Give the backbone structure.
Amino acid sequence: MKKAGIFFILIFAAILCRSCLFNTFFRYNVIGERKVVQFKDRELRTFLDNQKKNDINDIIQSALEKSTSDLSFSFEKCDNKTDILVKTKKANCVGYSAYLASTIQYMLNSKKLNDKWRVSHKVGNIFFLQMNINNYMKSKFFRDHDFVIVENTETKEVIAIDGTLYDYFGINRIKLK
């Protein structure tokens, strides 16, 4: 009984500290970049316009929550344009990052914060304890991974986020190598 109690306490602690644990062992390395595409979907624009938050952390959190509610992960080939993703509701890591980058960019533009913050859709590798785990994947689907970087143009502060990681594990920040 005592061992089971300790086991459940450890599981509970791991769940509570999942972001810290993940960022202790995993790092993302940038190897490329994709264009951040603007979207036209009226409903999405209306939703984002109604977000009253002007703090960058609140903007990012709103975009993460919106992508999680609008998209579901798929291993299939999916379109990566935000306007199409809004309709199909299916995305892989490229689609999640495209959606996330375009929604953050839209909110920054609408709140006149686009001079202070820059959004980029990055392609990279994931490292576990300094080992590139993408090298161990057989499928071309896993040869790289997409994520988003939001950078303050004045202070050079960098906020890195992975929409698929947030959707599955609730981890809203990642570390760069």
